Amino acid sequence: MLAQSLIALLLPVAAASGWYAARKHYTRKYLTDFAHPLTRAYRTGINYLLDEKTDKAITAVAKILEQESEPLETHIALGNLFRRRGEVEKAIELHKKLTLDPGLSQSQKDKANYELGMDYMRAGLFDRAESIFVSLSDTKTHGRWASQHLLQIYQQQRDWHKAIESVQTLRPYAKPRNGETAAYFYCELAEEAMSLHRLKDARDYLSNALADDPLCVRASIAKGKLELGNGEEKQALITLKSVEYQNPVYLPVVLPLIRQCWDRQGNEREFIAYLDHLYEAFGVVSAAVERADRMRQILGINAALDYLLPILESRPDPIGISRALAFLSEDSQYASNKIRRLCALLQELASDQHQFQCKHCGFGAKELHWRCPSCQYWGSIRPTGYLAVTPISEAEETTA
Ligand SMILES: [Zn+2]
Fold first, then answer.
1. 381 beta partners
2. Which of 9, 106, 205, 374 could form a disulfide with 190 if both were Cys (CB 3.0 to 4.6 A apart)?
3. Residue 358 Cα, ligand 1 centroid: separation in angstroms?
């Protein structure tokens, strides 16, 4: 127990940057006063640790620990200390020794095994970590955490089938840490199947995704694309329009696909009514720009700009403005090299803008990722700027 308390005392010191500064204080206060016969051995071991002579430290401390009646916690703490300091090989050596110790009970061995699994994770030896965490996943003491780590490992290995299993196992106990859902993993499988032209499999995976999470926008977008590619415009339109009820934030992202459905069906009036709805209900500026473009083709440039200018004035954005200028440059009456040059300048400005941002870590992106490349969170990247959704009533409230 003596060793345990010493290591426990030293752990926070190890974590702090003032390792050496604290050394004198701790060693004097807690070591020199002991009259225990092992005091000198402790001091030697701890001093080796503090001096980062870890080879000697491990030998010295291990020698002491052999004489302790309950050395498990201390051994584990020491191993964890090595892992935290990046000396993973030593942590593995120490924890492995414990798992083979015939004197330990099963639950004690589980504890050591769990730490060994963590060491393997840290070392990037995921297959070894996996087999340890699988063996622990049914235990009462470590089951939940082992499953959490398995979930990380399967994502790392892109083993989506196993990831689905482990996210479903975890569901009754805890919310996944990075927004993981079986639906996202089914979408990954669907994308893999699509890239291999296994369209039937892709459809099945997407149905599974929507069964797991009926609000999964990613699944609807992928399903809509699949239907559109297969010439099923009517069904694709239903699928893509459902994003409005799943999460309207993604409406500007699906709008180009919805336009394709309508263009192929040729029902212009219905499409314009839908664009009006998107702008009036959700403030989708790209819908207003699309509507202005349709107006330009039917009613001419003046009607289009009369409609669009007040909208752009209320939500100024280089992309919107460059689109309006593009209308001008396309119109033969206004077509001029100068307008085209202005338009190109604005487009260049706009191309530096991040159209997407992670609401979890703030990472800015130029395209939509379903998993943040920075914080690895699922479903946290949202359209922003020109593609942001702002219901008109809300926008009016904030400007009032
Ligand atoms: Zn992020």
1. 358
2. 205
3. 5
**Residue 349 and residue 360: Cα distance in Å, rounded?**
26
Q: How far is the CA of 122 from the centre of ligand 1 (A)?
A: 22
Confidence of residue 357 (pLDDT cuts 50, 70, 90): very high
**Higher per-residue confidence, 373 vs 4:** 373
| Closest alpha carbon to 187 in 166, 151, 215 | 215
Give the closest residue to 10 by CA, choosing from 68, 62, 84, 63: 84
Q: What separation in Å is there between the alpha carbon of 383 and the centre of ligand 1?
A: 13
Q: Per-residue pLDDT averaged across 184-188, rounded? A: 98
DSSP 55: H
Nearby residues of 112 by Cβ (< 8 Å), 6 or more positions away: 72, 75, 76, 95, 98, 99, 101, 104
- 269 beta partners: none
Is the model's pLDDT at 20 over the cut of 70? no
CA distances from 151 to 125, 146, 176, 205, 269 (A): 15, 9, 9, 19, 49
Is 89 within 8 Å of 66 (Cβ atoms)?
no
- Residue 359 Cα to ligand 1 middle (Å): 7
Question: Separation of 378 CA from ligand 1 center, angstroms?
Answer: 8
Q: How far apart are CA 92 and CA 123, in angstroms?
A: 9
Sign of CA dihedral 361, 369, 214, 172: negative
Q: What is the mean pLDDT of residues 348-360?
A: 87
156 CA to middle of ligand 1, Å? 17
Residues 357 and 388 sit within 8 Å (Cβ to Cβ)? no
**What phi, psi does 365 have (nearest 5°)?**
-135, 155
The structure tokens 């699994």 sit at 117
CA 203/CA 187 separation, integer angstroms:
10
Could you read off the pLDDT of 230-262 as tens digits, one per residue?
999 999 999 999 999 999 999 999 999 999 999
Tell how far the Cα of 177 is from the centroid of ligand 1, in angstroms: 13
Q: Residue 64: which pLDDT band, with cuts at 50, 70 and 90?
A: low
Query: Edge-to-edge, what's the strand order for the sheet holding 356-358?
Result: 364-365, 356-358, 381-383
Q: Return the SS3 of 56.
A: helix
Kindly report whether the global pTM for this prediction surpasses the value 0.70: yes
By CB atoms closer than 10 A (0-12, 13-18, 19+), residue 231 is exposed
Residue 92 Cα to ligand 1 middle (Å): 32
Looking at the DSSP assignment, which residues form a beta bridge with residue 192? none
